[in-house]
Amino acid sequence: MFIDGSSYSDAARALASHEDPVDMAVAYVGSGAAEQLGGGHKATRILCDLLSGGTNPNEVAKIQALAGVQIRHVDNLHAKVMLAPSYALVGSANFSDNGVGWHDGMPGNLIEAGCRVTDDVQLDHIRTWFKRYWELSEEITADLLSQASINWARRQRGRPRPAGDRFIITPENWRSYTGRDTKLVIWRRRPTAEEIASEGELPDGLAPGTSSPNNPHWKKLDRYHEWGDLLNLGPGVVLLDVRYQPQGKVVCYGARRTLANGHQVRRGSRTIDVMEVISVIDGQRFETAERDQLASWLQPEIQRHYIRWCDELNPDHDEGGVVVDLDRVLKGAFGTAEGAHPSEFQQLFALASRISEPLGWRCVTVRSPGPEVRIGTGSKNLRRKETPALGRVNLRLSIRDGMVRCGSYLSPTKLAAYGTPLRLSGAEGRHWVQWPTESTAVLLARMLDETRDRLNGSDVDPESGPQKSLQRAGSPRSAV
Predict the structure, then answer these.
(1) Three-class SS of residue 414?
(2) CA-CA distance, 327 to 139, in Å (whole number)?
């Protein structure tokens, strides 16, 4: 039987947590695999290609520590086969959160499909095939894990960026920006007049071609006062320059790159650290719009974690500045802590995106009021104030206590078919309904269809009249 999407993910999760012995041959093992095996209280055998660079050696080490689980290495393994006593899954997904999607209601980030096999003859063929490669497999030793770590790091750095020529991090693509050794340099105060006066002029030859702007190899430099070892990161490391202002606002001033031949300049008793100013990161431009977008999602993360980051990463200094791995911040903002489950809201946004965006809608999150998921017809900025007649922000979704709340311009009569009506204040013409979380996939797809018909004028509700009657002409009221 052919299965795809969430059906494939559900089947893989069920098989991985099966009470009976399970055999798996998967090319790559990734994040979440050890947790999904449920503590390893059953006999489980796993084959993987440890040295390909696609298998996470840290996850393999966790699996090795599970009771009852054996995991071994096979060179050039590319199969994805999961075998229980009574059925098997043969498909495209690796044993990872990115492939399978370990959490209920959240398929992985890739489009996967496969077949569920129940025929006894075919199952015997699969068992024979697995036995042959198990006998040919190699024990995973500390030396193999060490080499796998090198291969893993190299492959992570070499992964392609998301499509497009702009450095824009979103809830949909954030994983593509991890594993690249990018940092945030976060600072709180500007240099004093005395510090500025102590700089003098940067000497010629500090970096190749820095002596004259007329030189085609000239590099524009930015200066950091007495950061010392915090910026001793090696050559070619990209840092995103961010100021955390006293009033709590976050501003990004662009990207920097460490120099090849040193970064420190001495001026009297002071040390000045310098880095190259860049506007392109791995082929993607990082200019004003990209900086503003980065700052918008960084602000709540920095407000929550800045003091803790300083205590942990800069214990010998005050809270004036800190350097943080971008990976860590991304996982906090868009992902989960290691081994943790996504929040209800993260699951809601992932599901809404997968349903709405293939149909031509835009789906974004906003943090206030909320957090909320907002779905619209294509505005460049769904957060700005727009009239409901334009149809820009058509649906608002939030989640509370296992119930999804949805605000829509469909009439109360139509919304009653979706769940329990709610009396909430808001924009003129918007009505609210709530339903159980597990019903979201079916109800949201249906509501988007009805909303599209309404916007196209093919469904004029007799209760509320044509779409233009939602708001008086010239009214300043926002639909958001």
Answers:
(1) helix
(2) 31
Q: Are 105 and 6 contacting, i.e. CB atoms less than 8 angstroms apart?
A: yes
The reply to whether 2-155 and 344-470 are identical in fold is no
| Integer CA distances (angstroms), 19 to 29, 32, 80, 260, in order | 21, 19, 20, 55
In this structure, which topology does domain 344-470 adopt according to CATH? Aspartate Aminotransferase, domain 1 (3.90.1150)
Q: Which CATH architecture has domain 2-155?
A: 2-Layer Sandwich (3.30)
Token digits for 414?
A: 């139509």
- Centroid of chain to Cα 283: 20
Query: What residue ranges of the chain have pLDDT lower than 70?
Result: 5-6, 18-19, 38-42, 95-111, 156-163, 191-192, 194-219, 260-272, 316-319, 335-343, 367-370, 378-393, 425-428, 457-480
Mutual angle of helices 57-64 and 142-158, in 10-degree steps: 150
Rounded CA separation 129/12 (Å): 20
Residue 96's pLDDT is 64
Q: In this structure, what are the phi and psi dihedrals at residue 333, rounded to the nearest 5 degrees?
A: -80, -40
Cα separation, 352 vs 258, whole angstroms:
40
| Cα–Cα distance for residue pair 448/459, rounded to 1 Å | 13
Amino acid identity at 160: P
Kindly provide the b/e burial profile for residues 118-141, where b requires at least 16 CB atoms within 10 angstroms of the residue's own CB.
Answer: eeeeebeebeeebeeebeebeebe
Question: Domain ranges in the chain?
Answer: 2-155, 175-333, 344-470
Q: Is the pTM of this model over 0.90?
A: no
Among 402, 397, 440, residue whose Cα is nearest residue 418:
440
Closest CA to 409 of 480, 356, 347, 322: 480
Q: Say which amino acid occupies 332.
A: G
Please report the pLDDT score of residue 128 as a whole number: 95
CA distance linking residue 177 with residue 55, whole number of Å: 18
Distance CA 83, CA 118 (A): 10
DSSP 296: H
Residue position matching structure tokens 């009805």: 450
98 burial (CB, 10 Å; 0-12 / 13-18 / 19+) is: middle
Facing residues of 366 across strands?
372
Place of tokens 């300083």: 310
- Burial of 154 (C-beta count, 10 Å sphere; 0-12/13-18/19+): exposed
Residue 340 neighbours by CB distance under 10 Å: 12
Virtual CA dihedral for 453, 399, 343, 293, nearest 10 degrees?
Answer: 60
Which of 112, 125, 120 lies closest to 3 in space, CA to CA?
A: 112
